[in-house]
Amino acid sequence: MASRALRAATAAFGMLAVAAVAGNAQAQEEAFFKGKTIRIMVGFPSGGSYDFYARLAADMLKAHIPGLESAIVENRPGAGGLIATNALYAQVPKDGTALGVLPDTIANTQLLEPGNSKWDSAKFNYIGTFTPVNSVIMRRANAPAKSIEDMKTREINVGCSGKNAQSYQFTAMVKNLGNYRFKMICGYGGFNDLAVALERGEVDMISNGWSGWRVTHQTPLKNGEIVPVYQVGLKRTGELPDVPLAQELVTDPDARKAIEFISGGTAIGRALIAPPDLPPARVEFLRATFDRMVRDPQMIELAKKRNLELEPISGKEVQKIVQDIVTTPPDVIKKAMAAFE
Questions:
Q1: Phi, psi of 210 (to 5 degrees)
Q2: Which of 53, 195, 241, 319 is the most exposed place for a label (fewest CB within 10 A)?
C-alpha cells in the first residue's frame, strides 16, 4: 500500500513539475511579446481573401497574446505573392514579430520554378490554417463559351496577373493538359483588378479562392451574372457540389496526377505562417495561440459576420501537408511543369 501511495505521489509530483515548466515557458513567451507589434505580411493588395484572413488574425492576436501592443496587416503585392514570400523567408526578424498569409501555392512553385524560388517551403513554420480554400474559375454569364465543353472549340479570354500566380496556373494547367482554348491575358494586378476586367468584358473568365468570391461577389453570384465553371482542389467544396474539379476535366491519368499535385496547396488554404529559424518554444507558443483563437466564440462570430469560412487545421498538420508536396515524385513534377508552358 505504501509503495502504491509513493508511486501515486511521485506521478502527481511529475505532473505538477511538467505543468510548472509549461507555465514558465508560457510566461516567458508572453513576456517577449509585451509591448511589441506583430506585422502580418500579405502578398496581395487589400480586398482579397488572403487579406481578409490576415485582418481577422490581426484583430484576434491582440486579444490572445497578453501585453501585445498591436497587430497590423502589411500588404506587399507583386509577382503573384512571391515578393512577400521572399521577404518573410529572408528579410524579417526571426522572432515571431513578423508573420504572413502567403500564397497557398508556394510549395508547388518551389518545385515547378526552382530558378525563381528563393525559399524552402518546408523551412517556414506553419502556425495553422484558418480554412482550406478551393479556387473557383468563374466566367461572365455572357461569355462567348457557355460550358466547359464549349471551351474546347471556342476561344475564351482568361485574365491573370502573372505566371507565378494561381490566376494563371489554375487555368493554364487545364488549358494545356485538357486542350481547352483559353487565351491567357496576363499583366493585371490582384483580384480586384481582375474582377473589374471581368465586369468590363475585357476578359471572360478569372480564378479566385472561393472564400473571396463569397465575400465580394454575393450579389452577382445570386443574380447569375457570373457562373462557376470548375474548381481547383482535392475534393469539391461542400457549397459547390455540382461544380467539377479541374482533374475531372482531363482524361489522361498522368495529367490527373499533375493537376492533383498542383492543387495540393488548396489544403493549405489561408494559413498563418512564420519565418524559418524561430526558437522552437516560440513556434509552439504561436501554434497554441492560434488553436485558442480559432476556437474562440468571438472569432467564430467575427468570421461569420465577415462571411469567412473557418475550418481550422493545426500547424503541425499543415507542416506535414507541405512536406508531402515538396517530396512529390519527379515524373509528376515534370508533367506539371509542362502544364505551364
A1: -60, -35
A2: 241
**pLDDT band for position 247 (cuts 50, 70, 90):** very high
The pTM for the full model equals 0.79
User: Of the candidates 209, 294, 273, which has an alpha carbon nearest to the alpha carbon of residue 40?
Assistant: 273
| Rg, C-alpha atoms of the chain | 22
- CATH number 3.40.190.150 given to 2-132+268-328: yes
- Domain spans of the chain? 2-132+268-328, 135-265
SS3 string of the chain? CHHHHHHHHHHHHHHHHHHHHHHHHHHHHHHHHECCEEEEEECCCCCCHHHHHHHHHHHHHHHHCCCECEEEEEECCCHHHHHHHHHHHHCCCCCCCEEEECCCCHHHHHHHCCCCCCCCHHHCEEEEEEECCCEEEEEECCCCCCCCCHHHCCCEEEEECCCCCHHHHHHHHHHHHHCCCEEEEECCCCHHHHHHHHHHCCCCEEEEEHHHHHHHCHHHHHHCCEEEEEEECCCCCCCCCCCCEHHHHCCCHHHHHHHHHHHHHHHCCEEEEECCCCCHHHHHHHHHHHHHHHHCHHHHHHHHHCCCCCCCEEHHHHHHHHHHHHCCCHHHHHHHHHCCC
CATH number (3.40.50.300, 3.40.50.1980, 2.60.120.10, 3.40.190.10) of 135-265 reads 3.40.190.10
Q: What is the pLDDT of residues 143-170, one digit of tens each?
A: 999 999 999 999 999 999 888 788 999 9
